Amino acid sequence: MEVFLAVLRIIYVLIFFIAVFISLKFEMGDENKDERGRSISNKSYGLVFPLMPLGWFLIELYDHFISHLDYDTYKLVIWFLISGLMILHGLIISVLKRKY
Question: Which domain holds residue 38?
Answer without folding.
Answer: 2-99
